[in-house]
Amino acid sequence: MSLLSDELALPAYDGTTSEEAAVLLNISGIPALKPISSHDMKEYLMTRGLWLDIKKSASVAAEMAIDSLNHFESFDINDAYVMAALHGVLGGLVAELTTPDFVESHKTEVLAMGDTTISRAEQLGIKVTAGLVQAERNP
What we know:
Elements: H1 3-8, H2 18-26, E1 28-33, E2 36-37, H3 38-47, H4 51-56, H5 60-71, E3 74-75, H6 80-95, H7 104-112, E4 115-119, H8 120-124, H9 130-137
Antiparallel strand pairs: 1-4, 2-3
Helix pairs in contact: 2-9, 5-6, 6-7
C-alpha cells in the first residue's frame, strides 16, 4: 500500500468523493514550524526600535544575537538544538539590563515567525489531486 492509500483507508475519508478527499488532504491547517530568516528577525528588531540597543549592548546575549543574525541566513527551529539556542539568546535579551526594551512579548513574536500550517498531503510529503485519489481507490 502507498502512503495515500493508507491515508484514504482512514475513517475521515469514508463516504467522500475523490474531489472531496483531495480537498481535505490539501487543506492547510496542521500546525508546523518553518525556518525563521535572519532578514525577518532583523527587520522586526529594527522596526520596533530594538536593534540599536542590542548592537550597543556589551552583553553576551546581545553579542550572540548579533553574531548569529550576521552569520546565519535562517534558523531551522525544527532542529531542537537550534530552537534551544534561539530560546537562550532571546531569553538572555529579555533578562539583560542593557536591552530593557526587549521584553517577553518580543521573544514570543520572534519565535512566532516560525509558526505556519501545512496540509495533510504536505505532512505526508505527497502531492494530491482528485485524479490521484481516484486512481488509488480504483487500482
